[in-house]
Request: fold
Amino acid sequence: MIDSPRGRVLRALTLVALIVLAAAFLFGGFVLLQYIQEFKILMTISAVIWGVGSVALLYHVLNHIAQTMPRKVRSVSVAIIFAGPAILILFWALILPTLRSLRLSFMDSTGSKFVFLDNYIFAFTDPIMLQSFRNNLLWMIFGTLSCVVLGIVIAVLVDKSRMERLIKSLIFMPMVISFVGAGVIWRFIYAYKGEGVNIADIGLLNAIVTSLGGQAQAWTLVPFWNNFFLIIIMVWLQTGYSMVIISSAIKAIPVSLNEAARVDGANAFQIFFSITIPTIMPTIVTVTTTILIFSLKLFDIVRVMTGGNYGTNVIANEFYERQFTRGQSGQASAIAIVLLVVIIPVLAYNLRQFKGRRTLR
Amino acid sequence: MLLCVIRNRVEEVGKVAKVLLKDIIKIYDGDVKAVDRANIEIQDKEFMVLVGPSGCGKTTVLRMIAGLEEISSGDLFIDSKRVNDEAPKDRDIAMVFQNYALYPHMSVYGNMQFGLRIRNFPKEEIHARVKEAAQILDIEELLDRKPKALSGGQRQRVAVGRAIVRKPKVFLFDEPLSNLDAKLRVQMRAEISSLHSRLQATMIYVTHDQTEAMTMGDRIVVMRSGIIQQIGTPLKLYNTPINRFVAGFIGSPPMNISPAGVSEQDGKIVVKEEGMTVVIPESREEVLRPYLGGKVLMGVRSEDLKFTNEPKESNLNAKVIVVEPLGNETHLYLETKDSQLIARTDSEHGFRVGERVDFTPEVKKIQFFDIETERSLLYSE
Reply:
């Protein structure tokens, strides 16, 4: 740009014009929206255009202003303009609530009286909490292990088979069902109506069991084992995920690697354990930690299937129970913080894996 | 010290390994014939090179020998034992892959010992063999490194080392040098050749590079479209190619081949091409007589085109279009009315682009091929 006095005036004028235009657009849109409130569809469409347009315009104008600044200030201000809003929203929606929960976790149920560690003592001593911890441990170990092992086994078995696409789609399909939806489906599978005249069982599992000569059961009530019946639901949902990711990792192994191992004298099992598994280990770790986090914060399945009763309670459900049913915000916050503290190391490890893999490339 | 190591190795290997391919056919998906009736006899301790353009089936032949590819029909013998149905691990072969195929999660040592560990060799034996191979290949310093921390040439050595420690009957190489840069390729070429003479093992080597084939092979198999064209020593292929393809494929720059008319002049048979007239020596008259009045393909190697200062009717007169000075010699790209030729001259002449020059061919070394069948009129198997 020519830095003549005339040029400078011209630039200042454009800037002012832009700001005026932006202000007019923002205000005008607002007025317009109020004016057309009765025409719902029109309002929705204008709101979308206005919302997206305003953000774009805001960025554009701010960027324009930033570009006119001296070089040193410019790089900083551009960064603030583009990353600032996102960071602000992140702070407002994530960091602030976390800090607030932390504060609440030291307060009583009204959130006004400081009780220091009482809520944490509850969290680690209350029988229902201990049961939840045990159950979460079950979910973590058996749920995660089953998902990952099944994912690996299926990925290896179907690899290069003729039915690969069909089988993989079938196993991946549950992934698109929400946890609540899956809960409803599995309620029908585990359904038990009791015994008596005119009572017909509709549960799929009971149908199978009775046809094999067994006794119909209320599966979700069987002490301790009912946890596993719930875990199966997560395995059904999540195996597809681990299978797809692991399968793509297996496909990324060069064919010649397997061939080299075959020439070296390895049989199928030796190739699997000495070549395939170690080569895809980073992927397995990532998948495992991801599902681990899933099973730690698991809530929906338990909520829908048993509501946490019959010895199937988990930490997240107990948090929900305390906060929204009993109004014990202090205890609920303490549980939330405990959950957060447990998840952070897994999360950090997971992120480190991602980073490590990038540097490998 | 090094000599001592070499001598030890020679004594230890000592296995006799003849590889025999009898009417080997490979058919993919029911109708694509990748290899058609391949008959190859590879002698013990021989360095055999399979060469041909990409897609000619040379790698398929190698993979069938390795057992990585099923043989559709025919018999494969290693050391007079039919191995068609043997798994790769039972064939006592080792293979070096084009992309090295090193196990990325294992160290160099781990890579080299893998085959021995799988076969339950005692620890001390494994250690001794890996050390020895590392010494031969000069990679002792690298034993603890992971493949990703190695350069291309180093990876190549490790891949070769992994084969050496197994002390197999037959070494198979699948274009092992194609991923290396030009300078390293020349160096590794020499190293693999010297490795062959050290180990005294049977080696089968696949390449698309005719220079590699010529410089390394005891004998060469030239393949094209799944069919073996000719098998022979490098010089045999160079001097007595049995068809137009072998003549054009072996040798760099490639042989100049173009159609030429056969006629009789003063009682002698002459071949005319582009104003150049070649009087055929008596010994060759018999083979060309049937073509009188017709055409043949005439092939002249670039070094057999001699520059001449005496303009004559019978000379080849051509325009220089490109001059490639290589230092020791100069390649001239020549253009005549209908075709282009390449001539090798010594570098003193100082040819210029655009000037017209005269060449005469070395008559005794001219090759003739049937224009239809492209078979040599002079040589057969």
Notes: Chain B has ten helices and 20 strands. Chain B touches chain A at residues 66-68, 87-89, 93-95, 97-99, 101-106, 114-115, 118-119, 148, 162, 166 (CB under 8 Å). Residues 2-248 of chain B form a domain with the Rossmann fold fold (CATH 3.40.50.300). Chain B has two domains: 2-248, 256-369.
